[in-house]
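Morning!

This is the sequence you dropped in the shared folder:
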Amino acid sequence: MKTPLIIATLIATFAPAAAFATDDCPSVPRDQWLSVAAITAKAEKLGYKVRKVEVDDGCLEAYATDKAGKRVEIYFHPGTGNVVKVKADD
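The structure's back. Tokens below.
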């Protein structure tokens, strides 16, 4: 009876860690990447003011400020333009 509970606990504990271990932006051929202008437009449509866009670990990373004026880093999938993550800029 305890074995299924232990297995469920282990899965719940380590499954999120596996998700963090994978790349957020899989390899996409450069000719299929969105332009910096397109990424900037997407970020601005979401309410951010973009300072610059760079490539970071296969993602397009926009350095921006949010509506409250706080600096953020927004990671976009280079092929789809979907937001992968947003974090406070240190």
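Headline: The CA atoms of residues 47 and 67 lie 6 Å apart.

More detail when I'm at my desk.
O.
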